[in-house]
What we know:
The complex is a heterodimer.
Chain A lengths: L3 E10 L2 E11 L4 E5 L6 H9 L6 E6 L2 E2 L10 E4 L11 H11 L4 H15 L14 H14 L4 E5 L7 H18 L2 E6 L2 H7 L2 E6 L2 E6 L1 H6 L4 H6 L6 E8 L6 E3 L5 E3 L11 E6 L4 E4 L3 E10 L4 E7 L2 E7 L10 E6 L4 E5 L8
Parallel strand pairs in A: 3-8, 3-9, 6-7, 7-8
Antiparallel strand pairs in A: 1-2, 1-4, 4-5, 9-10, 11-12, 11-14, 12-13, 14-20, 15-19, 16-17, 16-19, 17-18
Helix pairs in contact in A: 2-3, 2-4, 3-4
Chain B lengths: L4 H30 L2 H6 L12 H5 L2 E2 L2 E2 H32 L6 H13 L6 H10 L6 H9 L2 H13 L2 H9 L4 H12 L1 H16 L3 H6 L8 H11 L4 H36 L1
Antiparallel strand pairs in B: 1-2
Amino acid sequence: xxxxxxxxxxxxxxxxxxxxxxxxxxxxxxxxxxxxxxxxxxxxxxxxxxxxxxxxxxxxxxxxxxxxxxxxxxxxxxxxxxxxxxxxxxxxxxxxxxxxxxxxxxxxxxxxxxxxxxxxxxxxxxxxxxxxxxxxxxxxxxxxxxxxxxxxxxxxxxxxxxxxxxxxxxxxxxxxxxxxxxxxxxxxxxxxxxxxxxxxxxxxxxxxxxxxxxxxxxxxxxxxxxxxxxxxxxxxxxxxxxxxxxxxxxxxxxxxxxxxxxxxxxxxxxxxxxxxxxxxxxxxxxxxxxxxxxxxxxxxxxxxxxxxxxxxxxxxxxxxxxxxxxxxxxxxxxxxxxxxxxxxxxxxxxxxxxx
Amino acid sequence: xxxxxxxxxxxxxxxxxxxxxxxxxxxxxxxxxxxxxxxxxxxxxxxxxxxxxxxxxxxxxxxxxxxxxxxxxxxxxxxxxxxxxxxxxxxxxxxxxxxxxxxxxxxxxxxxxxxxxxxxxxxxxxxxxxxxxxxxxxxxxxxxxxxxxxxxxxxxxxxxxxxxxxxxxxxxxxxxxxxxxxxxxxxxxxxxxxxxxxxxxxxxxxxxxxxxxxxxxxxxxxxxxxxxxxxxxxxxxxxxxxxxxxxxxxxxxxxxxxxxxxxxxxxxxxxxxxxxx
Lengths: 355, 277
């Protein structure tokens, strides 16, 4: 059992508020990713759950027990840090068994726990090495092994893959995900990398400026962003967002994006003529076609599996992602169509979704 | 990269010249111990002894009525005790200050330590005397040892090093269930062995050479150390160069040996502290 509840959690450093009322329910066995730009308070929140930071106001409970004033070691959590934080004076095995040593657990239990964690993470050959003799990926595995040995209620990960190179990061991503499936323990994972969050988590919590912008399943958030911040943050390349004016009435209502170019309104979205809104379209939802909205190609960036086009459409510069191989060269005119269902409309002032 | 021969020759000549400059007084001291005072006075610049004269070591068997072995034992005991206590206490203090700089008066304490480094040592005589007197420790080993144990240099070396230890390592240990004392003893101290070695050596060398606080706190020659005995030589026997040089040798040889063995460590530790901090 390892559920975590946050109730109206605030944190300020002096007069500077960092977290402004966080409410979150994490159920047992869930993999939750806290994601947001640097300085959004995600790491602070994680450290507060760990007990490494005090709580200014609000309540944090683990398994229904309020832990506001409970020392980290009493919380039954394990944490994996960005820079691994291995004890340099201890071997891999000693690192992993440190928590049990502090608990004065019997020798057999220590040995069994290390053997089990080493088997899970493939660390068998490294047990007698010192951290300085390991590569980055190995160190991160040892850090996870140290967490596994504790058999905690909740695993906390603080950007554990940020220090690894791109290839290793992808590999470790699936390793952590597999670990979660195997152990079934609650995991809270902080990252600034939205791809990491999307691929790994059962649920994503998008944070910005100390508040939760949206929490939900990855694809839910991707498909139905609640506001313009989430829309722009989730997705790579990010969503095209531009200003549009509502023109026409009734079924003829369309979005004008300048130069006489108009786009259809998403179904179920009713807007007054002359309203100025923000309009968002994901790059992969702009489909090249024989007829459609005319656009001029500015830049092409082929990656092999797909090609990214930068287009001038109406008054806007947009990015379009195409899986087919188009022969369009910079300067040429093409046409794109956009399915009305894939157009997002946001209020110009509040940034909230209108569609 | 290899430098041109001419440049290297020049560098070596300068280095050798400077070395001679520093080594010559030491050599002179060694010579002086084995040459009669008259010879030293008539021909002070001679680089080789006329004959080896060991009489000095008999003449210094007692200084100020106290046998020389007493000074030697005092020196070893006071230096060793103050070094051990000093390293332990300054390490603990620096650790506390690194971990919780927000605690009341901690910043002031730090500035206080800095101030003591700027304060002229000689001006300490009155406050040291008064404090030790009020503690009732005048003329005791405890008084001398306690005073020598605390040093701002040691404190700052520790502080610099502790700052360079990533906070996450300490936090990982806390999450793993370590108490603050366990974090200090099982994680921080083992990691800090290089700086512990450096501070130990520096404290040893500094305290071995101390004479001023020893003189102030002592009430009789019974608690004098070798450097104080050396100081007493001038007054008592006029200019017994030979005797002075003999005690100087006894005083400097252990420190020199310690330094030669440990100098790489000292340099390394000093550099670590300054670069990483």
